[in-house]
Design a protein that fits this description.
Elements: H1 8-20, E1 36-40, E2 43-46, E3 51-54, H2 57-60, H3 69-79, H4 93-105, E4 112-116, H5 119-134, E5 138-142, H6 151-154, H7 160-163, H8 167-170, E6 174-177, H9 192-198, H10 203-214, E7 219-224, H11 238-250, E8 254-258, E9 282-285, E10 296-300, H12 323-363, E11 373-377, E12 380-384, H13 393-402, E13 405-406, E14 408-410, E15 416-419, H14 427-442
Parallel strand pairs: 3-13, 5-6, 5-7, 7-8, 8-9
Antiparallel strand pairs: 1-2, 2-3, 4-10, 9-10, 11-12, 12-15, 14-15
Length: 445
């Protein structure tokens, strides 16, 4: 095992940060986090010049890695002409090109988009659109979902640590449906202890609960992530999502897919909806589309419910349609489209590394001590240590950081170790981190 890395400058800068930043923003412990200095490809370097492999792609944003030529060239080209514009008054060609490209690659007949800056902004656009389309003002979501922390999206989140202190404003705006036990979970349903801890519900039970709510005909939309990101890489089955679509249509409720995390190659396809062949009424996109710049959107065939502008827009932002972000997004999406077949080929090898890790855990006698389930799809996977104590993956995250790997824990119990690396990563990099995890678990008392 390698020696502990230098943290002299990291510690000094983090101390300065604590003096000036809201205390509920950056988690700081004795050996966590690092202060990033620079990055290239899948690698990051901190202020103490320690090097790391980034298995997060900075929350799934950097699909093409840190500082790819695609982004750098687009920034140089656009910044030589115009950096900031007036997106809702005097549009730029960059904005028009991007919206035409998105319209072409999404599964809609006559789509129109609302641009914004963050994923939460896009969800807010979808919420407003659903209210205008249905004349209803309540929403449904699934437990464990994460849709942003602005006030409108916050209503869809039901984790106490997110909503504490804001309950009066959120009261009666949405209802959370229990997450259905997907196929990997079903083997645990006979264990009452695990069922109590993880609140696993068969799909049939969840669909009955969903239909009971939809029958009330008070909900504007059901909002869901095809694969929950912050929720711990939990997946819905294709049949379940198809039934959700059918029920929503039957009772006049819209279906909104939050693909801010899952979009643009993250799951091995351009969009996660391709795995289930379900077209939602509205689709929210962000993160990877911007190539590292802040941009997002909500798209669908029903945007005409907003009506035509009468001289002053009702849905706008100062940085809406930011020309630099639009130009980078356009080139990023085109590059992901072009390289996706190569990414998919590498995924076959990466999937084999996950299975090899499980085999090695069993071979070393560690699987009985630390049983886990491989969750997710494509470049969006997690190891769910389902019998572990709460926050099991937090110290594991910190130890991996000290060994040169940037990862994150997920799930309400922080018992899922998440992997959402740049799409340019190789199987050999997974082999390297899995060997380290195996050794760290061996040394766990």
């Amino acid at each position: 095992m390698q020696k502990s890395r230098s943290r002299k400058l990291n510690t000094s800068l983090l101390s300065r940060l604590q003096n000036v930043e809201c205390p509920d923003t950056t988690y700081i412990s004795e050996k966590f986090p690092i202060v990033m200095k620079k990055g290239k490809g899948i690698y990051v370097q901190d202020v103490d010049n320690n090097k790391y492999i980034d298995f997060t792609a900075c929350f799934g944003v950097l699909a093409l890695g840190h500082r790819p030529q695609t982004t750098l060239q687009a920034i140089r080209k656009q910044s030589a002409k115009l950096i900031h514009g007036m997106g809702d008054v005097h549009p730029t060609e960059a904005k028009i090109n991007l919206l035409e490209l998105i319209a072409k690659i999404t599964p809609y007949a006559n789509p129109k988009s609302l641009l914004s800056q963050s994923g939460g902004d896009a969800i807010e656009s979808a919420i407003k659109t659903a209210m205008l389309a249905t004349k209803r003002f309540q929403f449904l979501s699934f437990s464990g979902g994460y849709h942003g922390l602005q006030f409108a999206p916050l209503a869809l989140n039901h984790r106490q640590d997110f909503i504490h202190g804001f309950e009066p404003w959120l009261f009666n705006k949405s209802v959370a449906i229990p997450f259905p036990a997907f196929s990997d979970d079903e083997t645990f349903l006979d264990s009452q202890q695990l069922k109590n801890i993880h609140q696993l519900y068969p799909e049939s039970v969840v669909l009955n609960l969903l239909e009971d709510e939809l029958k009330k005909k008070v909900y504007a939309a059901l909002v869901l992530e095809p694969i929950q990101g912050r929720g711990g890489k939990r997946s819905f089955t294709p049949d379940f999502l198809k039934t959700c679509k059918q029920l929503c249509t039957q009772y006049g409720t819209l279906l909104i897919f939050d693909e801010i995390y899952t979009g643009f190659g993250r799951t091995g396809e351009m969009f996660a909806l391709q795995h289930c062949n379900v077209t939602p009424d509205l689709l929210c996109l962000g993160k990877a589309m911007g190539g590292g710049l802040p941009i997002s959107l909500c798209i669908g065939d029903i945007m005409d419910v907003w009506g035509k502008s009468k001289g002053e827009a009702r849905q706008t932002q100062t940085f809406l349609g930011h020309p630099l972000a639009c130009a980078v997004a356009f080139e990023t999406i085109k590059t992901i489209q072009k390289q996706l077949p190569n990414f998919q080929k590498e995924l076959v090898k990466i999937d084999a590394e996950f299975l090899k890790f499980k085999h090695n855990m069993q071979k070393e006698g560690l699987y009985t001590r630390f049983p886990f389930v491989i969750r997710g799809k494509g470049f969006m996977k997690g190891l769910w240590f389902y019998k572990s104590d709460a926050a099991f993956c937090v110290p594991l995250m910190e130890q991996l950081l000290n060994h040169g790997f940037i990862v994150l824990p997920e799930g309400e119990r922080a018992d899922v170790l998440s992997f959402t690396p740049p799409l340019i990563i190789k199987a050999e990099h997974f082999n390297k981190i899995f060997k380290t995890i195996l050794q760290l678990l061996k040394n766990t008392v």
